[in-house]
Design brief:
Elements: E1 6-10, H1 16-26, E2 30-34, H2 44-47, E3 57-60, E4 63-66, H3 68-78, H4 92-115, H5 133-143, H6 158-173, H7 180-190, H8 193-213
Parallel strand pairs: 1-2
Antiparallel strand pairs: 1-3, 3-4
Helix pairs in contact: 1-3, 1-8, 3-6, 4-5, 4-6, 6-7
């Protein structure tokens, strides 16, 4: 392994699918290390990289990056030739950060809280970053309804990979309401060649795992 190599730690039945898609959008070679939840994900060598014992994670140029939004942002900046992030002096950089981290923060927190029955009562909504589940959903609707196919209009970025994954999974698992704007956005994202390649790779790994466990 060289420092410049991208090593991708994942399990095909995890949020690692988001990073797989991002890596395919970047278009640079990478090596995949598939970890098992009960064993290798909790092994000392992996815990030395990610003490959480969770995937995904990447290593690249001596850096360890965990958390899907952080990995997407890192890869977009590490490989500017892929054109997946506005330049630092581009006014669109603000909206790019805004929506990526809105999805990583308020949206994920609100969806998780609702899924496990832990939404705060209305009188305590100011104590949580997302306010209320309905506020988070309405703001997400606003983000994907700004007139372009992507969050930044005609410009597809790493924010679409991350936010789009949240929308697609929310529709798949019923944790987000089925709205035409969400469905149309998810369909556009699913049709991207990199997204198709990523699904095919991970679906093949899932099939291999099931066959191996049969």
């Amino acid at each position: 392994m060289t420092e410049a190599e991208i090593v991708f730690y994942t399990n095909p039945m995890s949020r690692g699918r988001i990073v797989r898609w991002m890596l395919e959008e970047v278009g640079r070679p990478y090596r995949t290390v598939v970890l098992d939840y009960a064993t290798t994900m909790k092994a000392p060598d992996y815990l030395a990289l990610n003490p959480m014992g969770k995937v995904p994670a990447i290593t690249h140029r001596g850096a360890v990056v965990t958390e899907c939004a952080a990995i997407c942002a890192y890869l977009a900046d590490a490989f500017p030739e892929a054109n997946l992030a506005p330049a630092t002096d581009d006014p669109l950089r603000g909206a790019y950060y805004r929506w990526m981290f809105f999805a990583a923060g308020p949206v994920e927190a609100a969806v998780t809280a609702k899924s496990v029955g832990l939404l705060p009562p209305p009188e305590k909504s100011t104590m949580v970053g997302y306010g209320s589940f309905d506020q988070a959903v309405e703001t997400l609707d606003y983000a994907v309804s700004q007139g372009g196919p992507w969050l930044l209009g005609d410009r597809f970025t790493a924010a679409d990979v991350y936010v789009g994954s949240q929308v697609s999974w929310g529709l798949m698992f019923g944790t987000l309401p089925t709205r035409p704007v969400f469905q149309a956005y998810a369909e556009r994202l699913a049709a991207r060649p990199a997204a198709v390649r990523a699904r095919e790779i991970d679906d093949a790994l899932v099939a291999a795992q099931k066959k191996g466990g049969a």
